[in-house]
Amino acid sequence: MFLVFPDSAAIATHLSARLQDIIRQDPQATLGLATGGTMEPIYARFVQDVRDNALDVSKINSFNLDEYVGLSAEHEQSYAYYMHQHLFSQLPFDAARLHLPNGLTKELEQHCQDYSAAIAASGGVALQLLGVGTNGHIGFNEPGTPFDSRTHVVALSERTRIDNSRFFDSMDEVPASAITMGIADILSAREIALVVTGEHKARTMFNYQEGGITPELPFTALKQHANTHILLDEAAASLLDPNLCHRPLISQAA
């Protein structure tokens, strides 16, 4: 079932409420976090709601999906920088509990193994936020990535590099590789929220609806997860079977 909302603001309201519920139930919960324009309204709403409700976030743990290889945390296009700007600097988190892949590590293979191990040692992810690329990638798991993959280094496809080039001054500056949680890491989360917005994602979602489970469309692995929620705006849902779409009642309350 697809959950269809009027717009990204309504999705943000819904997910902020869900995140707060998880933290109230377990103040030390582990969250799986994502980056990108799709997540910005979600983090903005969550920050405002946490402040309004005086919710303690100091004990939660987080693991980010991915990071470019070769970019420092201070680089404006790194995902560490994004997280600091949009979330981590906005609320009183414990920095020691916030985990991101290190794009500058010299020991990439060991770092990847340690990252997956740390996710498991934290007790596992309570809720994993996800976006999806136009080629169906989740995290940076490109088409063809085995579903049993753990955190690894991936060579970014030309399609992904082109999609991300708008954030850089030229294609030459777009990193060619990244560290990403593997699909098995993502599927180990107890709950997954895939957020899809915009008309440019409508065909990708149609392919998800109509197709089978295949590594050539990595996010179809989510069909194997018993507690995945796919949240779309009207534009992203425009090609889907209306009988498979549920439109939740919208509440403005956090």
Automatic annotation (TrEMBL):
User: Which Gene3D superfamilies does the UniProt entry name for this protein?
Assistant: 3.40.50.1360
Q: Which domain of life is it from?
A: Bacteria
InterPro entries per the record?
A: Glc/Gal-6P_isomerase (IPR006148), Glucosamine6P_isomerase (IPR004547), Glucosamine6P_isomerase_CS (IPR018321), NagB/RpiA_transferase-like (IPR037171)
* The keyword Nucleotidyltransferase is assigned to this record: no
Q: Which residue ranges does the record assign to the Glucosamine/galactosamine-6-phosphate isomerase domain?
A: 9-227
Tagged with keyword Hydrolase: yes
Q: Which UniProt keywords apply?
A: Hydrolase
Report the protein name in the record. Glucosamine-6-phosphate deaminase
Organism, per UniProt?
Alcaligenes aquatilis
Top-level taxonomy? Bacteria, Pseudomonadati, Pseudomonadota, Betaproteobacteria, Burkholderiales
